[in-house]
Amino acid sequence: MKLIKELYAYREMIFSLVKKDLRGRYKGSVLGFLWTFINPLCQIIIYTLVFSVIMRSGIEKFYLFLIVGLIPWIFFSSSINGGAISILTQQDLVKKIYFPREVLPISYVTSSFVNMLFSFIIVFIVLFISGVGVNPSALVFLPIVMIVEYILALGIALIASACTVFFRDLEHILSIITMAWMYLTPIMYSVDMVPEKIIQIFNLNPMTPVIIAYRDILYYKKIPQIETLLQATIIGITILIIGTLVFSRLQRNFAEEL
Amino acid sequence: MQQDNVIEVRNVKKKFKVYFDKGSSLKEKILFQNRNRYEDRWVLNGITFSVKKGEAIGLIGKNGCGKSTTLKLITRIMYPNEGEIEIKGRVSSLLELGAGFHPDMSGRENIYTNASIFGLTRKEIDMRMHDIVTFSELEDFLDNPVRTYSSGMYMRLAFSVAINVDADVLLIDEILAVGDVSFQAKCFEKLKEIKANGTTIVIVSHSMGQIEQICDRAIWLEDGLIKEEGIPKFVGEHYLATMENQRLEKKEEEYQKIFKEKKLEEINNIEVSEFESKLNDDEEEAEIKIEKKKKILLPAFCNSRAVRSGNRIVEFTEVQMLNSKGKETMVFSTGEQMLIKMQYVCHQIGTSCNFTIGITRDDGVYCYGSSVLLDSKEVIIAKEIGEATITIEYNRLLPGKYFLDIGAQAEDYLPYDTICSVKEFQVTVPVINEFGILSIEHKWKVDGNAIKQKNS
Lengths: 258, 456
What we know:
Number of domains of chain B: 3
Shape of chain B: globular
CATH topology of the largest domain in chain B: Rossmann fold
Oligomer: heterodimer
Mean pLDDT of chain B: 81
CATH superfamily of the largest domain in chain B: P-loop containing nucleotide triphosphate hydrolases
Number of helices of chain A: 14
């Protein structure tokens, strides 16, 4: 409770860090902010080429199937990988001045989130160009899914950022983990393709219900199953609580360890 | 926590792990496990103090004594291993100026970023914008990117933000060396103003002058413990004297080491006149001992809390304070004559010498000072044995406890012999009819009728 109050007092710091991050991300590059769109677009073109030309998956409008899962995933993986080093990269600040340390991972995850919102412009453009369009009553659930994913990403980023301070290898280990995680999440394939035997284990992945919900809303244009959504919410909140507890325990020694 | 305390530090201990050779990656952790050995170094060994609202305290002590660690614990950058720290209100720390400044952003944008790190909201920053900009005197450069600023301008901007945060507690670590002389003076004025408005200030500084000017109380830390706490001027004197003694002792040690090496060499090289050299050694050693004694032991004429320093080319041998009847005393009344007699010996013939006195009240207020050189405007050559006196015809000091400082210096103010608080004396008055430090001649007139002073 005290933490929430304090974070609220420091909200301007979060805003200004997010702004700085978004502006600084592509500063000095010729195409600037356009890279926010170019990068996921290229990934989508590559995956589409591979999966609908070479290894045919047989999924209708595969590019659309892919894009609605891949863009949320890019947000999630960049939150973990970038969030993990968010304390390390701001160590001068951490060593010299007091502020609630949670501000740093929160700002990083938030700026990635804003980036995802911009990327969703592409998603909608593609949806309309392909003639699929949107279902307004399903679209109402989109912000809810986004918030659930944000909570999940933040929880993991809090744990990752605090642990990376004490154990720097985690940064590199995490980039391998997120790569594996991507293939274990139904982004490039659908859940139906997963063998019956391992489906139980597969469903433990907290990102699975999130991606399924995104796909229900945007690709299948239907209201996501409440059950799926609830499951994702519960997992997200649990991880956020664990993340906050771990972070508040570890943050006491940040200044000495950096 | 007591009602009017803003900071309470209770028996705080802090240790650091000092790694001999630290590896933080997995490979290093597994492969070189024995490299992970570390040693606990206790930086604070249990300090306790409290600061009241609106009070300013200064932390002094030599490098590594725990001053900066204490500040970091108060700001919550670090946490103590034992003990508790409690603080009321918003803390602003000037440990690091310009935190989060981005060189490509304009001065104005950086003000927002920097102030937000102190926990200010946009509205609060907007309210302070004008004050910050005027204080920094950077109106014309505000929309230029910060990378085009000179380092002085950069610091000015950063300081202006930090000082305008309106914190309840302001922590300052050795950063008053900002900008040019006039800006420094301005910062000082601002600090005093902030203090007068009720902000509590904790300063770490090596400049005793700064601490004496701003602080109500000084805390001297040594080896992680509070060695002395009290009025800045007196704590400072003791601190500086101890430091000086330590420096001299170290110098002496080095000298003796070199001397011994030399002696060894001599013994190895020449076997002749062994007896003679031994005799010389004894003499030298005796000399060093005498000198050491002089430094540590205070002569009988000094007050017990006196602090003595200087190279003793000219040395005081006796100091007396006499009243109008020529009797030695430590109690004077306001208006009485006061005679201060200082006897000296000079160890170097033809030394030019200046004598000074100073009077300080027991709460650290410097009341009066005078020097021969400032009066005469010409240099006096000291005799081998001589006496300097100063007669104060009319003692204007009001009742209280005072300390006398005396000094003998070269014309360039290099101290020969300085004794702070050499004498303690009391000023009394039969009937109190004035308040403050000094008695000033005055006449009251009410409705045209002159009021007469009655002394009974």
